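go over this chain:
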Amino acid sequence: MPAAMAEAGGKRHGIDDLLRVMARLRDPDTGCPWDVEQSFATIAPYTIEEAYEVADAIARGDMPGLKDELGDLLLQVVYHAEMASEQARFDFADVVDAITTKMIRRHPHVFADPALREAFVKTPMWERIKAEEKVARGQASAEASLLDDVTVALPALTRAVKLQKRAAQVGFDWPNLAPVLAKAEEEIAELKGAIAARGGDVGGLASVAVKEEFGDLLFVMANLARHLEVDPESALREANAKFMRRFAKIEAALARDGRKPQDATLEEMDQLWDEAKAAEKDA
């Protein structure tokens, strides 16, 4: 029993308790008015938000926080399953059965034939099994694109990587890192050209060409991340955290003089930034 549970000395709740709680919340007569009003569409944004909060807790190494965020994410699954059950579509047990069956089916090297382990690692067996599942469900057709089922709802950088991975499975890929870097330089040059065509570094809305070239550059950077085996979303989150950390040090340094960033010059803040950066490297 976990220490926190032992200290509390209370009942340890299980998944059945959570299912009962959700059913009670959704009861049209005695439930929570807010919960009763919700639908798949209104809950979907919370589901996405909770997945991001799980990722954030992991990135921060916050294990107590991760426990809570995983609970919030589980609640989302239970919420959707309860609403589906109310419509006699499926229930939570169906969700559990479906994912369990899928994991067993997609891991034949674990649950069926250990001799397939090497083939699983060296070949796109996972994707082949998924393709076979689509055919069995009648979702595949001769006209379907290899990229059709890469969901649009993913963050754009993550989706770019998945699209590129899918295309790479049929040989549409750069053979090594060098041409990817060259392509990135080409896209930077094209972006500079689009900026120059609109009159240089001026304010106002970006032109269609600038936006397009900027998108192309981001797409190439996602490809570069894939070749480097770097998760671009994770890398950008870490860069965001680093920026916040160093900017906070600028604010703290100025506060010691009774000032705020808006009271300082760009040159002063650049100097403080460099000092914060150097301090991190020396730590």
About this structure: The longest helix spans residues 63-86. The radius of gyration is 25 Å. The chain is about 70% helix and 0% strand. Residues 234-282 form one domain.
